[in-house]
Design a protein that fits this description.
alpha/beta; binds NADP nicotinamide-adenine-dinucleotide phosphate; globular; two-stranded antiparallel sheet; eight-stranded mixed beta sheet; 38% helix; single chain; 9 helices
């Protein structure tokens, strides 16, 4: 099985994805600007499966066969640009949302190319960018007993990379892969995260995305 690296993997989003990847049997490298910190975070995660989670630098995470970007939006492009050569010819998954808080709401921001996935694709012309994991609530992702039963909406201009990521997502406990389409859908998919979080704030809820009417 492929080893999967997560850039910025020490945050709640990266930890949740790592836990469920490892529970599906994948070895995961949590990348960080501080390898010691990543090691501490990795030791605190207990997957249920054969996958091993280790902590290291973002450089080491970028050396993995498949790489997830899980940094805040405003550091994502700088982080991946510094790793451009390591990420060439690989599938790079963006779960990055550009959001800002206004009062009790999260509102989407629109980067110059319309989405963070498109910004990352522009920064990494030799990589295959796939968007996934945008709508997942980190707290429930990190609790394998949370009963999470969520859909992961996936987009990419690279059919093979998209199918590969969908196959991995379907192996992760509590998740179902839904391929939405191409990179042109990145903007609404990322922006919809603002709706998910705002609904949860307003209703003091822990809802997540599950598309009805899907026959699979
Ligand atoms: N939280 C969620 O529920 C959730 C769900 C879906 C998608 N997302 C998206 O996933 C991404 C990460 O979310 P998060 O809540 O985990 O974010 P976060 O905790 O703010 O950041 C994640 C990690 O990024 C690294 N980082 C922070 N500032 C950085 C900088 N200036 N340069 C490079 N690395 C930096 C940090 O790791 P080190 O200090 O160890 O380097 C941090 O632990 C965001 O883009 C978010 O929109 C989040």
């Amino acid at each position: 099985m492929a080893t999967i690296g997560i850039l910025g993997g020490t945050g709640p989003a990266g930890r949740g994805v790592a836990l469920r990847l490892a529970s599906a049997g994948y070895d995961v490298v949590l990348g960080s600007r501080d390898a010691d910190r990543a090691g501490d975070v990795a030791r605190g995660l207990t997957p249920r499966g054969t996958g091993v989670i280790s902590g290291s630098t973002n450089d080491a995470a970028a050396a993995c066969e498949l790489v997830v970007v899980a940094t805040p939006w405003d550091s994502a492009v700088a982080t991946v640009s510094a790793l451009r050569s390591q990420l060439a010819d690989k599938t790079v998954i963006s779960m990055v949302n550009a959001l800002t808080k206004e009062g009790r709401e999260l509102v989407p921001m629109y980067p110059p190319r319309g989405s963070m996935a498109a910004q990352i694709a522009y920064a990494l012309p030799a990589s295959n960018i796939v968007g996934a994991f945008h709508h997942l609530p980190a707290a429930q992702m990190q609790d394998l007993d949370s009963g999470l039963d969520a859909d992961v909406v996936i987009f990419s201009d690279h059919d093979q990379a998209r199918e590969h990521v969908a196959g991995i997502v379907d192996e992760m406990p509590g998740l179902r892969a839904i391929i939405a389409g191409s990179m042109s859908l990145a903007s609404p998919i990322e922006a919809f995260t603002a709706v998910c979080i705002s609904v949860n704030i307003r209703h003091k809820a822990h809802s997540y995305v599950k598309l009805a009417g899907m026959d699979r």
